[in-house]
Amino acid sequence: MFGFFQKRIQDQLAERRVRRARLVTKDGRCNIEFGNVKYSKQFAFLADFWTTFVEIRWRFVLFFFIASFTLSWFIFGLLWYWIARSNGDLTWQSPPEDHIPCVDNVVGLTTAFLYSLETQTTIGYGGRAITPLCPGAVALIIIQSLIGAIINCFMCGVILAKISLPKKRAKTITFSDMAVICPKKGSLCLSIRLANLRKTLMIGSQIYGKLLRTTNTADGETIIMDQVNIDFMVDAGKDNLFFVCPLTLYHVIDKGSPFFEMAVDTLHKQEFELVVFLDGTAESTSSSCQVRTSFIPQEIMWGYNFLPIISRSKEGKYRVDFTNFSKVVPVATAHCAYCFHNIKGHHHHSRDGHDNQGFEVIDIPDHPNVTKM
Residue 303: which of 266, 336, 332 has the closest Cα? Predict the structure, then answer.
């Protein structure tokens, strides 16, 4: 019993170390922090205040929304109180019966605050109203109306901009949890599955990858984040993806691939991170967005292939079964890329088939031509 809990704790600690080692998390966030930034550089965030407000968290946006209105009401309430006091309108000043106030029924700090709120929000209950006898009060009501309109426009713009951020569209595009390595059309390929959960398409989509690892140059220099381009291929389209159903991305492991020197028994001992990007434009909003995720060696399965998820029901409708989106099945695969290209029949797994009883089988021809993205 004690050994079971000890193993669980060790597994969780190892998982936390792996999570901290990622540059890009599975949901696309960048795990990086900046240190020793000069104060002069930090003022650049204030200069670009619009982007700063749009990118901050919702809790701070709501705080600034409430604080900006409440503080402006209170400040102008103090100014209205000062005008009423200067004119002798307050109750404790005992104005005469024939006294004409600057603002009717503003006789204290509370009523001054309420008049400020009614003025800036254009409520106008009718109990408090300005009189034309005080030029300072007329000027103040104009200034407050203009400043209130500016605050309304700015805060409403920030909220609308945050709601319509392109990264929200990226939440409906998902990658498979694991990547697999298996034969594909006569080549050894690394495969990743990608799905668009909305029926609206992504226009002008481009898919590419970066392999991040630490390398040592011939001069003895250590590059902590060396980036290597990873080309992916898809089976649909020539220039743009027809992203109406889940797609499978392929990277051919040839002699020019950084995966060529890896094998089934050395893959999980490597230290690298494969970051995959999808750039596109949302059809409904015409806003550009980027979706990204990453795979570490422990998330790449050698000798497996994804289960089929696209089929046609008996009613003739095409259907995507997302229960098999990240499920894999073992297939016959060479132990290494060198074995695949030079030693025929050097396999790691035997192939098992799985039937989906809910759909009828459709024979889709395997075209030899693929498109390189």
Answer: 332
